[in-house]
Structure formats: C-alpha cells, structure tokens
C-alpha cells in the first residue's frame, strides 16, 4: 500500500510513520505548512506546525529513510480554519478549530491530493481505531482512553475513513510510543505535546480575537434582562465561563454567576447561576455520518460534547433538517458552535454542530 504519512513534527506522527514502514508499506512523509510566517517558533508546548516542527519532521523522515516534502496549505488553512474560527466567534458561537482542521485540511485537502497522486491512504498519529465491519469501515475509540482522539475525528466520512490509517490506535499508552521513539533514535521522543490553538501560540485567545473581531463595550445582563455589569467585547466570553466577568451587581443569593449565553447582535452577555448551565436538549443541522447511517430515525446512544468530557447516555432523533439529542442527565454548559459526537458503544456514529440548546432550568 502507498501511504502518505502526515508528519507534524511530534512524536506520535513520527512513530506512526515508522510503524507504517515496518508494516511494509511504501511511505512518503509530508509536513503541512499552515502559516506563511516562516520565522514562527514554538514556545514549549504551545503552537504547532512551526519552522521547528518542520525541521523535526524532516529529521524523523531522514531517520526512517523515507522521502519527505513540505506542502504549503496556508491559504486553505486560513480560509477554512482561521476565518471560520473568527466568523463563528463573531456570531457568538464557540468553534473547535481542531475539528475544522481535521475536516477541511488533513482529511479533505491533504487526502484529496494524496489520492490524486496515487496514494492509497493518509497515515496520522491520531489515537483511534479503524475496524472493517460488515457494512464498511468503522471508527472506534482508541485502546488508551486517556489519549483517545475519536472525538476530533468524528467529522470523517465513510469515504475518508476508507483511505485513513491510524497505526497508534491500539497502543495501550503514550509512554509506550515515547519509549519506542527513543529506541528508534527519533529525536522527538521526549518532545512536549502541543496544546492550545496552534495559530494562537501565546495562548491569548481574547487578545487575538480582539484584533480580528474588534472590541466594543456592552452590557452583561441576568436571565430576567436586568443589567448587572459591563464587558469590553462579547467575543471574549463563552458559555460556562466564570472568570473575567465585570459584575457590578451581586447575585441575590450571593453565589457566583456564569455565562449562559452570548448575544452578538445586541452585544450582550447573559449570566446566571451554575444550575442554569444544565442543558436538557441540543440540536444542530450540520451533520455527517462516520460510516453507515443509523438504521432508525430515533436511537439510543452516547453523546460527547467536548474532546475531554465524558460521554453521556442520550437519545438522538434525526429529523428532516437537524439532529435533536436529549440526554438522560443534562449536559453541562453547551454552547452553540460546539461539536457533538454521537457514539454507539466505542463506535463513532457521526457528529453535528450544535445550533441551539434548551436549558433544564426555566427562567424564574
């Protein structure tokens, strides 16, 4: 099999490429240049896809003895990931750029080019399992629950799964991957995992958004509509946030208040008690299926609303224009723009972007 190994410059993708070589595949390494700021450098574990990452990926490819290339996907990344991130925040939603990157870049733009060049699959260092079932390939949770990345891969379609290769999915722990990298002489063996948003390496999302969206003073109100404070830009807030609220009026019960809603049209932020974050229903219209679609329009499942949250037992109903999910116990603080991934046991059924939510606590 001809395999295109996406090499980020980290330990996971390097070991994944190495395992693909060991499996006897014809492997070519590629690093995606997602920024045209050629001098961009990493700051410890912040950021990724920098010039240092490119050099680390090249050294790993040289060690493995495979061809290596750098492909410029910066324009596509800007249009499909960064601009989407900005427009979603401008609309008062909370996007997940990693989901968009997997959907639009790694398993769309990259995979399309790979197939055009005659490759059979794209290999990445993601922790997830691929199972060939009776009705096609299925996406499942990784063996290592702590490293499972099936949530951020929930956007993959059946066609994309057919050309995907995850060599690390059955690895019991990240420690084993690092030890293997060291044994292979890969210099990235102890390289820190990247975190935060890759295109905001300093971690100052609020400041970055202020430059892109602009900051305008507005009101913070409670659920009754009473003004309880002010803010310097609604884009800086997300549902469930507690810190950073400039409240001039304390709650009647003296308890802390949390962001319940962001309203970009009138530049207001709605706050209320923690109990009001309980969400009894979520729904969204933009959905995909990871393999076969559900046989029935209504079915029992588990739903995960964040990359590191626990799945919640629920019932999903597929309607003409949206998917509606009712959890057995309320979700905690779901924001429009988040991705909800639907599971059947360990198998990813599909995903949708949350458009609306219903609080489990009615307004008094």
From TrEMBL:
It is an enzyme of class 2 (transferase). The keyword 4Fe-4S does not apply. It catalyses: S-sulfanyl-L-cysteinyl-[protein] + uridine(34) in tRNA + AH2 + ATP = 2-thiouridine(34) in tRNA + L-cysteinyl-[protein] + A + AMP + diphosphate + H(+). GO terms for cellular component: cytoplasm. ATP binds at residues 6-13, 32, 125. Pfam families: tRNA_Me_trans (PF03054), tRNA_Me_trans_C (PF20258), tRNA_Me_trans_M (PF20259). Disulfide bonds join 101-198. One of its GO terms (molecular function) is ATP binding. GO terms for biological process: tRNA wobble position uridine thiolation. Residues 283-350 form the tRNA-specific 2-thiouridylase MnmA-like C-terminal domain. Residues 147-149 are annotated as: Interaction with tRNA. Its EC number is 2.8.1.13. InterPro entries: MnmA-like, MnmA-like_C, MnmA-like_central, MnmA-like_central_sf, Rossmann-like_a/b/a_fold. Keywords: ATP-binding, Cytoplasm, Disulfide bond, Nucleotide-binding, RNA-binding, Transferase, tRNA processing, tRNA-binding. It is found in: Cytoplasm. Catalyzes the 2-thiolation of uridine at the wobble position (U34) of tRNA, leading to the formation of s(2)U34. HAMAP family: tRNA_thiouridyl_MnmA. Belongs to the MnmA/TRMU family. This is tRNA-specific 2-thiouridylase MnmA. The lineage of its organism: Bacteria, Bacillati, Actinomycetota, Actinomycetes, Micrococcales. The gene is mnmA.
């Amino acid at each position: 099999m001809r395999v295109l190994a996406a090499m980020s410059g980290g330990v996971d993708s390097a070991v994944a490429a190495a395992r693909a070589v060991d499996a006897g595949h014809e492997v070519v390494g590629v690093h995606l240049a997602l920024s045209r700021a050629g001098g961009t450098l990493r700051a410890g574990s912040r950021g990724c896809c920098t010039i240092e990452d490119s050099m680390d990926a090249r050294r790993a490819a040289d060690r493995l003895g495979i061809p290596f290339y750098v492909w410029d996907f910066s324009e596509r990344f800007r249009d499909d990931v960064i601009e989407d991130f900005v427009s979603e925040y401008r609309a008062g939603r909370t996007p997940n750029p990693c989901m968009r990157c997997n959907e639009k870049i790694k398993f769309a733009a990259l995979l399309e080019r790979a197939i055009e060049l005659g490759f059979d699959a794209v290999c990445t260092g993601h922790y997830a399992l691929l199972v060939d079932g009776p009705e096609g390939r299925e996406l499942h949770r990784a063996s290592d629950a702590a490293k499972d990345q099936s949530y951020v891969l929930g956007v993959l379609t059946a066609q994309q799964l057919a050309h995907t290769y995850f060599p690390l999915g059955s690895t019991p722990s990240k420690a084993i991957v690092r030890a293997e990298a060291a044994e292979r002489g890969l210099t990235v063996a102890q390289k820190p995992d990247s975190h935060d948003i890759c295109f905001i390496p300093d971690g100052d999302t609020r400041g970055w958004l202020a430059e892109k969206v602009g900051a305008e003073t507005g009101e913070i109100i409670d659920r009754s509509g009473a003004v309880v404070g002010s803010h310097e830009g609604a884009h800086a807030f997300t549902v469930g946030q507690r810190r950073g609220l400039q409240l001039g009026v304390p709650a009647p019960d003296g308890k802390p208040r949390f962001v319940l809603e962001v309203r970009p049209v009138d530049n207001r932020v709605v706050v209320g008690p923690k109990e009001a974050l309980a969400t009894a229903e979520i729904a969204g219209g933009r959905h995909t299926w990871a393999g076969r679609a559900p046989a029935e329009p209504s079915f029992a499942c588990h739903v995960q609303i964040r990359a590191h949250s626990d799945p919640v037992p629920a019932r999903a109903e597929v309607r003409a224009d949206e998917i509606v999910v009712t959890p057995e116990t309320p979700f905690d603080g779901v924001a429009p723009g988040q991705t909800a991934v639907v599971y059947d046991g360990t198998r990813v059924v599909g995903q949708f972007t949350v458009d609306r939510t219903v609080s489990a606590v009615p307004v008094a």
